[in-house]
Amino acid sequence: MSKSIDHSGLTFRRDYFGHRKAWGALVDLLKDTFDIDIGPLQQLGGPDPSSMPFGWFACDGRLAANLSAFAMPLMINGRTVNAAAFQSGAVRPAWRGRGLYRDLTQKALAWCQEKGFEAIVLYTDKPALYEPYGFRALPLHAYSGNAPAALKVRTPVRRLNPLEPADLKLLSTALKARAPVSAALAVRASAAMFLINTQLDPGVRISWLERERIAVAWKMEAPGHFKLLDVVCADIPSLASIIGALNIDVEAVDVLFCPDKLGWSGQAKSLDSYTQFMIRAPGTIAFDRPAMLSPMADF
Ligand SMILES: CC(C)(COP(=O)(O)OP(=O)(O)OC[C@H]1O[C@@H](n2cnc3c(N)ncnc32)[C@H](O)[C@@H]1OP(=O)(O)O)[C@@H](O)C(=O)NCCC(=O)NCCS
């Protein structure tokens, strides 16, 4: 028997990102629900062009419930997977328990099937919400270890500000031509996620290696403790040359993706996170090696 939905007083809309007020209603829903501001995305080239939002709107223009899907091609175990991702799933408290989220989940799943995606991924702190639809949690691992001896590279390096049009252009071009940062698990593109993530964590620095045309997303956790979040370029350089180019004193390193292309091997450590990474795919998927998606791909 199909379960009921109560959408009285609400209007369903999909594909509404082109409408300024409706986009603003999503920004408000995500601020109110998750305390995340995706408003700056509009200055950063806009949402992912493949996005397909599904929403129930109240008559005052507020978004009561939403779930968005978008194409997120992934590299998993050395193979390109034509994946979609779900994001921005939320229902305002006054409208919860009426079946609105179940309805949006079914609509988003139907869209993914129609588009022929091989897999769907999401992050959630409520895995039970998605298990009935065949999503399974995959363990994520970061890598830690001693810093390699820096390979001194004399290259002009400067910090990029993605909100500056010239820097945004550089970064967007690099993101279009990027190689997956790991063969184990990485995004193939997803420029919009990278760009908004530069704004969501003020501790992230984006350094531009001028000559090599490489963007490095990194943090200094404490003096001497380097965290590498992502490397955007066509040919991934070694960790030793990244540290050398940044010209920083580093003793300990955390790499927040599988470092198979970095010429360095740390120790895999289970990622401490309140959310789980889930995947829905026809067969069973397990990573060949411990892995995680770069935080710059968070969605
Ligand atoms: C979680 C949330 C989206 C549920 O919305 P909702 O409109 O109340 O959900 P529905 O009434 O459509 O219920 C859908 C199903 O989810 C189940 N469910 C609802 N809340 C749940 C929760 N916190 N954990 C697990 N399952 C839940 C319901 O029992 C129902 O199951 P059924 O289909 O077997 O009947 C909503 O509470 C919310 O926005 N929470 C805050 C943000 C959030 O957690 N977003 C989703 C995580 S990515």
Automatic annotation (TrEMBL):
UniProtKB keywords: Transferase
Gene3D superfamilies recorded: 3.40.630.30
Sections of the chain in a coiled coil: none
Species whose genome carries this gene: Rhizobium tibeticum
An annotated Gene Ontology molecular function: acyltransferase activity, transferring groups other than amino-acyl groups
Entry-linked CDD domains: NAT_SF
Alphabetical list of Pfam families matching this protein: Acetyltransf_9
UniProt domain N-acetyltransferase: residue ranges: 10-154
Protein name: Acetyltransferase (GNAT) domain-containing protein
